[in-house]
Structures are given as C-alpha cells and as structure tokens.
Amino acid sequence: MLIQCTKKLLQELKVDVVTEVDEDPLHSWHANLIKLGRKKVVVFTNDQNRYAIVLYGVKAKDLKELDVLLLEGIERAFEAEGIKQEIIDQLIQNVGNTSYAKTKNPTTVARLNKACENVEFGEDMIDPDSLFQEELSQWVSRVMYGNGKNSYIHPNEELYKDLEKLSGGPIFSTEAVELKVTLELSDYTIWRRLRIPTNTTFSHFHRILQAAFGWMDSHLHDFMIYSTENEQPLVNLVSSEHAFEFQGETPMVLESGKKLSDYLPSQMVYTYDYGDYWVHKIEVEKVIETAHSNVPVCLDGEGNAPPEDVGGEGGFKEFLHIIRDPNHPDYEHMVNWGAAQGYEPFDRNEVNFWLKK
C-alpha cells in the first residue's frame, strides 16, 4: 500500500519516503492533514476511484500507525456501505507492505483538496467520540467530482465498479427493512414507504426522512423507540447534547453511532421541529434478509408534506386555503413563500434522486 502525503502531513509523520514505487492505484492513497476547530483530521482519497476515508481527532500516537488506521477505516467504511465481508477481506489481504511518498502531481493534490473542502462542508456529520468517520466518508464519496473535461464521477460508484471487477460478481449483501412512515395529521394523509439497509445509522436515517418528506433540516429532531410488547417507550435517541437538559422519564441517548439494527423490530416515532411539531409514525412492514443494494429507496407515498415553518397543522391548513384560491390577496406571496420553504408536490422519482445522493 502506498500513502502519498502532503508536505503538511509529512512534517507530522516524520517517516522515510520513497521516490519510486509501482503500486496498484486501488491500493494507493493520497492523504492530507487539516484542522476542524482544534481537532486534527486526516483525509485520504483513493488514487483509482477517489473514495474518501476520514479520521477525526488524530493524535500523535495515531500518526505512528497511520497505515493500520487507514486499513481499519477502509474496513469500517466498506462495512457501512454494505459490501460483503469476504470482498473486504480480499481487498485488505492484497494490500502488502506500506510505503510513504510525496504527493504525485498538482492534479491529484487538487482532487485531494476538493475532498478536504467537502469534509469541512459535512462537519455536522462528525461523531465527536470516534476516530473513524464512516458516515462522513460515505457522504464525501457521494459528491459528484469533475474528472477531466466534461467528465464527472461519484467516487462511491467508481469504487463499486472496482470491487465488482475484483470479486467477479455482486458486492452487496445486507439486511434491509421496509418501513411505512406516516406524518400524523388529523385532516391530511401524508406517508412514505421506504426500503432502508438496517445498518443505517439514525443520523443517516434522519437525513433519509428529510429527503423523503422534503424537509430542509432547519430544526432539531429526535427518535422515540417503543417496545413491541407493551408499546411503552424504551429510549429517546436525541441529536444534540442540549436535549439532556430536558431529560424526562424515558432514558435519553445520543443517536450518534446508533443503527436501525440496534432497535428493530421496535416501533419508532420521529419528531422534527419542536415548534411546528411534526410527528412521524414509523411502522416495520417487512424485513429483507439479503438485499443486493445499499441505497435507500422510496417505494411509494402519498401527499405533499407541509413547508418549513408554516405553523403546525393549523398553519398548514391556512397555507393550503390561500394557495388554492388565486383570487386571495395573499395568493402570490404565499405561493412564492411556499416555494422558498421547499413546498412541492410529492414526486417519488425526485425523492429517490436525493436518496441516492
């Protein structure tokens, strides 16, 4: 394995570098050291497919075993992708000894820097308690990157092609679940049916629900998990430590790192925006033991979700009353406001476009 480091990272590593090495691009990585706040972050990008691996809160002792941590980061990220374990093992076994080198050329450095920029954009996805940032690695690797004149790639899709070539067959094998998610309103019917890998984290599940209902992720949220036996609340998964200031009778746990598989088949409720108070009931309809895709999918749905900050169900009712009457004095203003707030007709294909990202 070859790790080609920026000058900044080499100064921290203090390792011998090679000048010439013939390494398979699939086992060759570029790496840079950046800072988010006061934390050091190492960002790797694969030379062949540009898939990114992110290590957060790196300390001096970690830099002494950077190659080992990169391999563990690869394994964790690929497991989160739903890639078969035997394919991950095959890739790791083919790595060989590690060599360090300087960066290859300006083009590769520019590509690495672009990945680093996207790590900064995705900072809100960071799990502050973990060195390995699988979720952020996945997100950065789903961004579309330029790859030459009028050419674009998604690193995750390029990785899948490389692993299919390596294995000679399908690379995914993950459990999935079909869920019906209903926005609980008294006068309107709004729901989505989703198929999601069960190794999905609740942080990621939150973003899936945002995309499915057209929310804009402008407010806090939480998940309440209920017992399947007596429908009593078991645990409240929260997105912010500030939530612990309002601890109730149900135990609170940060959602960071928690997966659907940790709590299924329990029933769940997702609450978004404590002002407008949008409550989504989540029902398990089917468990799929072996799914050959790692992409969440919207299978069906009904109803247009309310716009952000409309004022709860009462405000939504008034909003609909106005936009259905072109003669209303506030019609034009309200239509424009709704568009700015993300209000649009439910379109399954549009939802799936965003879910793929």
Write up this protein:
This protein has 357 residues and is an alpha+beta fold. The protein folds into two domains: 2-167, Nucleotidyltransferase, domain 5, CATH 3.30.420; 174-356, Structural Genomics Hypothetical 15.5 Kd Protein In mrcA-pckA Intergenic Region, Chain A (Roll), CATH 3.10.290.30. Helices cover 32% and strands 26% of the residues. It is elongated. The relative contact order is 0.11. The mean pLDDT is 93.
Secondary-structure blueprint:
Blueprint: E1 2-5, H1 7-13, E2 28-36, E3 39-46, E4 52-56, H2 60-63, H3 66-81, H4 85-93, E5 99-102, H5 106-121, H6 134-140, E6 145-146, E7 152-153, H7 155-167, E8 174-183, E9 190-197, H8 202-213, E10 221-226, E11 233-238, E12 252-254, E13 267-272, E14 278-291, E15 297-302, H9 312-323, H10 331-340, H11 348-356
Parallel strand pairs: 1-2, 1-5, 11-12
Antiparallel strand pairs: 2-3, 3-4, 6-7, 8-9, 8-14, 9-15, 10-11, 10-13, 13-14
Q: Which terms summarize this structure?
A:
357 residues, alpha+beta, Nucleotidyltransferase, domain 5, Structural Genomics Hypothetical 15.5 Kd Protein In mrcA-pckA Intergenic Region, Chain A, 8-stranded mixed beta sheet, 15 strands
CATH superfamily of the largest domain: MM3350-like
Shape: elongated
Which blocks of ≥5 consecutive residues have pLDDT under 50? none
Portion in strands: 25-35%
Helix content: 25-40%
The secondary-structure element order is: EHEEEHHHEHHEEHEEHEEEEEEHHH
Intertermini distance: 29 Å
* Number of helices, where a helix is a run of at least 4 consecutive DSSP H or I residues: 11
Overall tally of structural domains: 2
Structural class by SSE content = alpha+beta
Largest sheet: 8 strands, mixed
CATH topology of the largest domain: Structural Genomics Hypothetical 15.5 Kd Protein In mrcA-pckA Intergenic Region, Chain A
What's the architecture of the largest domain in CATH terms?
A: Roll
The CATH class name of the largest domain reads Alpha Beta
- Mean pLDDT, all residues: 93
As a whole number of angstroms, the C-alpha radius of gyration is: 23 Å
The largest beta-sheet arranges its strands as 12-11-10-13-14-8-9-15
Query: What's the β-strand tally?
Result: 15
